[in-house]
Amino acid sequence: MVDLVTENDVESDRDRSQSFVVFRLGKEGYALEVMRVQEVLDMQSLTEVPGGPKYLLGVINLRGHVVPVYDLRMPFGLSRAAQPSQVPSVLIVETQLGESQVTGLVVDRVSDVLEFSPEEVQPPPQLGLGKATPFVRGLIRHQEGFLLVLDVDRVLSTLGSLNGEGV
Predict the structure, then answer these.
(1) Domain holding 82: CATH number?
(2) More reliable by pLDDT, 96 or 36
(3) CA pseudo-torsion sign 108, 110, 116, 118
(4) How confident is the model at residue 143, as a pLDDT?
(5) Rounded to whole angstroms, what are the CA distances from 134 to 83, 144, 155, 163?
(6) Which of 32, 72, 157, 166 is the most exposed place for a label (fewest CB within 10 A)?
């Protein structure tokens, strides 16, 4: 018996696949759903917030809106790169915690936007990811390794609780 692949089957698979922004943080590759990322900016000058927590790098003016920018390396226990080889990127993400807010997250480098099917997103192991464990909601096999699928709401919630407020 021969199974025929119809155009509708191919479109169905394409409809089910999800796009992810792929970025690097330290030596690891991460993925974040494209739907959560409003835009990607090159690092620009920040206005520091006196007395602000060390993971709050400052704020930027994004088309008339004040956007806090956080160092995504801190929740993962990574030290700041003394002399980054490239200009870091800022992911502008929308939080889904309570009321909608826009937040900037500094990453080392954004490399791609890739599509993966839901079957390619595997559950994360319970151990072995170090400080990243609570912030990872899945793994995607990619090239010679894995991409860690970031749970951005949990990251922002943690940053907010460290700050004594929601992000």
Answers:
(1) 2.40.50.180
(2) 36
(3) positive
(4) 85
(5) 28, 24, 8, 18
(6) 166
